[in-house]
Amino acid sequence: MEGDRTMFSVFIAEDEPASMDFIKNIVSQKCPEFYVVGEAYDGAEALEKLLENPADVLISDVEMDDVNGIELITKLASIHPQTHSIVVSGYSDFAYTQGALRAKAVDYILKPINIQQLVERLDKIAEKLRKDYRENQLYILHSCISKNLVDKKAVDYYFNSELFSLTLIHKGGHEDAGGIEMMGREVLFTNNYKDCWILSGRNSSELLVISESENCMERIEQIIDGFSDGNYCTTVFSDLCKIEDVNKTAKLIASQLDECLTIGKTQTVKLGVQENVLIPNTTAITATPHAKVLDCHEFLSMSDFYLQNGDIKGFEDELVRNFRLWEDGEYNAVQVGRALDLLFSRISRHQSTRRYYNYSNPLALALLNATTMEELMAMVLGIFNDMLELKTHTRQSTEAHFDVIDEYISRHYMEPLSLQGVCNRFYISQTYLSRLFRKHRGMSFNDYLTILRIERAKEIIAKNKSIKLKDVAQMVGYPDSSYFSKVFRLHVGCAPSQYSP
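^ thats the sequence. predicted structure below, dont judge the formating
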């Protein structure tokens, strides 16, 4: 399969020159996915050439001198089983057909050869070759990435190059990563790039993109756009490396990604770059960061002090203060997650209850799903309040906690928000959220959301008197314009079309 990887090679073994020329003309004129790589007029010569340089397809006559077609196919299959074979013969005897099938020939065609029949057989083989070809590429890449097992002959056969660029894309926040052996195990997306593979990363939040081209940033941008779902992404990519260095490079980009993953921050980092680079028509490429060490000793000591003295407000203020410091310092998500895990481990020790609150899963979800440090802080306060409620059957509600939830609603009021949906987002109960709104807004969640939407609608109408009712409704979170009109009239006293500030 040397040369153009979009084409497959055909070797012809035929002892009749006229038949040889006829088959060659069919392949060259009717089968654009194939090219004739070699020919032989007897079986022994064909076997010698094929053992040295295997072809994708062998088309062989049955009756030839020295080594006949059935023997040729049988011997070749034992050494190069990936070669597909078609037997051509003037004999219609069933014994020949049986012999061809036992030799694993793809098909058996009688002379005189029907052009359309041979073309259809080769098209069928091409479809299977493409599938096998891609699967073998994946197997080779995964072996090189996870186990550092490099088969040079296989690489030469299935790839155009021995140089590869690796890009690891991580969507969202921190998630416990699997080992390097998880990378490249499966194809996640098909794509139109013949020299680019979009493979699994260490976990469900990651993609590994492997390319034989160094100039692949434009396609990486497209892949990130399709994968991100509007979330922030952290991307680390390498220069071209040799196939024997793929394992080492995969470990380096995984380690680098863990170092620079920062909650809420989209960034693209080039492995080994020590200064900022701007690639035309792509994102800014940041310098390789050196992760700052998050020293949480003072934070944990102060938290212990407040918890031991039952000063819940002092503890929560200390937590909020440290979140601000972590955000300003852009500490990576792994270190923030480790600090929070140590914190909740200490909080658990202060639980004087037989019922133990398992914080691990809620904390892992919070680190994964939070799009900003503000959101993460609100989620962490929610987890803390769950633990506190389990111990004392009461909950604390800080203004900082509510402010983050309120800001989230202000940013997403045009979406189909619900009380349960917001509770799920911040890992709190409906009772607790309702209590927060009663305390800080003096009304229920649903009343607050309705008033917010109607106020936004009034602002939109005031700025554009000619705007359509259905457009206003959709802009403030009402898919049904008739229902929106009823709600508007109930709260404002007139229809949207009659409203004047």
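The longest strand covers residues 163-171.
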